[in-house]
Amino acid sequence: MPNPLDPIWDAHLTTRSALKVARRCVTVASIDRAKAFSNTRFSGLTDQQCIDLLDAAQTDVDDAAILSLYATFEAKLRDYVALQAHLLRSAQQPSSDFGMALANSFSEYCDRNRMDDLADLFVSVVAQVVVAQVGNVRTYRHWLAHGRRWAQPPTVTPAFAYQTLTTFLQASGLV
Fold it and tell me: Taking a C-beta distance cutoff of 8 angstroms, is the pair 62, 158 a contact?
């Protein structure tokens, strides 16, 4: 099964490389800046203005990668858990309709439940430390997604997010 996080990670690495190339256009003296920056946002800016824009872009690219990685991970996990509802449909007691009602209730529960609670379901196959690290990624993603309005949790890098979430998916057999 392919890892759904790979395309996001590849795009992130490509974007980081593009930012490095743009930074070189600013810092390498032998590059014709007028030609390199023609028809771009950098045309006519000072070196420091260009560097400041690139630094801000790097931060935003890293944040966007974490948001996207976690959203994709969460969707994969929620979809898998919700698919298990079919196992409940065969319940026949107290009536034949009970299994369908139970399966529907479970699917709704999956949609409403907190993500960290769902990740805990996998602790029997995913090491507790990995489940805790997923919780750290989730907390950081939550802080980013809600506008950084409270004290910053421990920083999570895109590489840590990718590695941790991939480790979880692999250990749980979802990729």
Answer: yes
Two tokens, residue 174 = 């979802």
DSSP-derived 3-state class of residue 76: helix
What is the per-residue pLDDT for 84? 81
**Closest alpha carbon to 8 in 56, 53, 75:** 75
Please give the average per-residue pLDDT across 13-32, as a whole number: 94
Higher pLDDT, 66 or 95: 66
Task: Give the model's pLDDT for residue 114.
Answer: 66
User: What is d(CA 163, CA 135) in angstroms, rounded to the nearest whole number?
Assistant: 14
Q: How far apart are CA 37 and CA 108, in angstroms?
A: 52
Contact 138, 78 (CB under 8 A): no
Burial class (CB within 10 angstroms; exposed 0-12, middle 13-18, buried 19+) of 8: buried
pTM above 0.85, yes or no: yes
Tell me, what amino acid is at 79? Answer: D
Q: How far apart are CA 111 and CA 82, in angstroms?
A: 8
Number of Cβ within a 10 Å radius of residue 131: 19
